[in-house]
Amino acid sequence: MNLPKSTLQSFGEVIYSFSGLDLLGECSRRDLPIERLKTVVAWYISQFRPVIFGMSPFNPVLGETHHVSNGDINVLIEQVSHHPPVAALHSTHEKENIDVTWVHYFSSKFRGAYVDVELKGKKVLKLLNRQETYNMDQPRLTVRFLPSPGIHLAGKVKIKCSETNLEAELHVNSDSYIERLGSNNNRSIKGKIIESSSGNQLYDIFGHWDRTVMAKNVKTGDVEVIYDAKENITGLKPPIVKNLQEVMGSESALVWSEVSEGILKKDWKRAGEAKRLVEEKQRESLKQREASGESWVPKHFSVVKDGKDWDCSPLQPTVPRDPLVIIEAQGEIVN
């Protein structure tokens, strides 16, 4: 029932794993504010990936990290809480001076035939060269059992930039069995770009997040493709270790290496035993902290908990390059 990787790896992949245009860097390269927002929308949509029902990654241990570089993009994620599970992400783009922070946690409600999962936490993109900050929220996940099992993205999201007075409103349609009968709504997305102060609509957004997404200028009627999933996420490559000596001991790939190898080789006994050892080590660490009265403190983020809400800030202004890198098919490091 487990994928051979940690939730932190799945979480980080949506930022560093791409095969086409560097959409994150492109967000800052566009000259006009409206063009930058359209590219931010495209980058946001590029993070949507199909989820396999019944297969889940490992629940990260407290203090686990995942640190990967892809070209100019460096990503660092840390599990800052285990109960409840909370992860913090920091990513920086060296060339374009872009900063991304994201604290990720969730709450779920059982509703009979399905479970409604609210993905919570702040997600902020800063184009530092442009002095622009984009705040964005996340769609829900629906885990449906009947009539056809599946996990689906759904809900409304907003991407807003106060400095440019522009925002995008997107509605992600569920790809559940019932909603797609007799329609073409499978993984569809609709929305608009407006001026925040006046509400004046500038663009219609429409398409499918696993295919293409278009933007239509409401004034001129011109239509353009702003996102092509085939170009951006086809043939994704996993990170490889460039220098094993530099890999942190808390790295997901090391923490779960024996478990992942057992799953890949279909050696379920080995995988199960390795998973038990990881979990026992975590429980033993907790006992030792409780016995000494020591509180666990994240290494890479400062954490603030306000009731049920969490917020995290990176302790360093930029993410350094990492010995885990993305490699092209020819064996060259992606630039």
Automatic annotation (TrEMBL):
Source species, domain of life: Eukaryota
Coiled-coil region(s): none
Entry GO CC: cytosol; membrane
Chain's role: May be involved in the transport of sterols.
Molecular function (Gene Ontology), one example: sterol binding
Keyword annotations from UniProtKB, A to Z: Lipid transport, Lipid-binding, Transport
Pfam families linked to this entry: Oxysterol_BP (PF01237)
Similarity field: Belongs to the OSBP family.
Name recorded for this polypeptide: Oxysterol-binding protein
One record GO biological process: lipid transport
Annotated source species: Microthlaspi erraticum
KW Transport (keyword) present: yes
Organism lineage: Eukaryota, Viridiplantae, Streptophyta, Embryophyta, Tracheophyta
